[in-house]
C-alpha cells in the first residue's frame, strides 16, 4: 500500500501546466451549460414527463403535478449538459486528453468503481437496514409496480449520469485545478467538501437545518475528495456516489427531499443530527476499506503524450 502523501507519484492534476484563463473560461462554460442548458433541456422535454408545458404558468407546484418517474426524469436530465460540458472543456479548452480527468496514474479500472460502490453501500446501507429492522414503525413500505417500475428504469438510466457528472466537475475539474497550486490532501478534501455542499443546500431537505445539511454534504464531499486525491483517480468516488444515490432513490428514502419519495421504504424526514453522527464513523471506514489494492503508477499515463 502506498502512502497518500507520497510525493513520488504525480498529483491528481493535469499532466502539464494550463494557463489560468483556460480554467476560468472552462469553468464559466461548464456552469452556464449546466444551469442554462440544463434548464432549457428540462423544459424542452417537459411534455414527455406527463405534464402540459402550459402548467408552468397555471400550476404553483409543477414538480408535484408530475408522476414520480416524470419528476425524477426532469430532475436528472438537467445533468446531461454538465456531464458533456465538463468533458468538452477538459479536452478542448484545457487541451488535455480525457483519460487524465479520470486518472492520472492508471488506466481506468472498473473493479475499483465496483469497490467504491459496494463498500459505500455496505457502510451506509447497513445501518439504514438495521434501523428499519429495529424501528419498523418509523418507516412505511410501499411497492406499486405501476409507479415503481418506470421510476426504476429512469433511475438506472440517469442516476449514473447525474452522479458521474458531479464527480467529473466537483472532484475532477475542481480538484485538478486546485492541485496545480497545492497537492495537500487535507486542503483539497476540505475544498471538495465545501464546494460540493453549496449547491446541495438548495435541496428541500436542507431547509429545516442548514448547518446539519452542510455538514452532511460536506462529509460526503470530503470523503470522495480524499479518495480521489489519494488514488489520483475518480474510480472509487464514481462508484460510491452512484451507490449512495441509488440506495436513497430505490431502497430507503425520505419524504420532502430532492427526489420523489418512491423508495421501497420511506421515512417522514431526514434527521441530520443522527445521520451526521453515523457519518463520523462511516467516512474514516470508507477511506480505510477502499485503500488496499492500488497498483504502482502506470507507464502508459506517464509517456510523452502527456505533454502534447
Tell me what you see in this structure.
There is one protein chain. The protein has helices spanning 20-44, 55-58, 68-77, 80-93, 99-102, 110-134, 145-178, 185-200, 210-231, 235-250, 272-289, and strands at residues 140-141, 252-254, 265-267. The chain has 308 residues and is mostly helical. It has one domain. Strands 1-3-2 form a three-stranded mixed sheet. The protein is globular.
What's this entry about, in short?
Helix content is 61%, strand content 3%.
Question: What layout of secondary structure does this protein have?
Answer:
Layout: H1 20-44, H2 55-58, H3 68-77, H4 80-93, H5 99-102, H6 110-134, E1 140-141, H7 145-178, H8 185-200, H9 210-231, H10 235-250, E2 252-254, E3 265-267, H11 272-289
Helix pairs in contact: 1-4, 3-7, 4-7, 6-10, 6-11, 7-8, 7-9, 7-10, 8-9, 9-10, 9-11
Helix content: 55-70%
Oligomer: single chain
Distance between the termini: 31 Å
The helix tally amounts to 11
Let me know the average pLDDT: 87
Largest sheet: 3 strands, mixed
Order of helices and strands: HHHHHHEHHHHEEH
Number of strand elements? 3
Rg, Cα atoms, Å: 20 Å
Number of domains: 1
Give the CA-based shape: globular
Category from helices, strands and their pairing: mainly alpha
